[in-house]
Amino acid sequence: MDQLMFSLYFQYEDVSRQDPLLKPNHANVLEVPGSCKIIVVPKTTPSIKNGKLAMEISYGQKLKQRASTGKSFRSNPFLGSNKDKKGYVSDLA
């Protein structure tokens, strides 16, 4: 039981609460969407990881695994960084 509570606490404090703050399109913390509730589904298939499932439930987005991580950082359009057609930063220097 303690392990379950620790994993839920870790998921909320280190992933669910911090992830919207790391998105580059928010000018201040008041623009970050809040979570009104966290739903825990105990009976899931073993192939789904808990963190991925929690992110899909709380934000309503399906997470994808990208083949290349070199262009995974989104750029802020107001900073004038070099971007490709999809809005990804092409140089990380």
UniProtKB/TrEMBL annotation:
Record's compositionally biased regions (Basic and acidic residues): 82-93
Biased composition (Polar residues): 66-79
SUPFAM superfamilies according to UniProt: RL5-like
Region (Disordered): 65-93
Name of this chain's protein: Uncharacterized protein
Organism: Solanum verrucosum
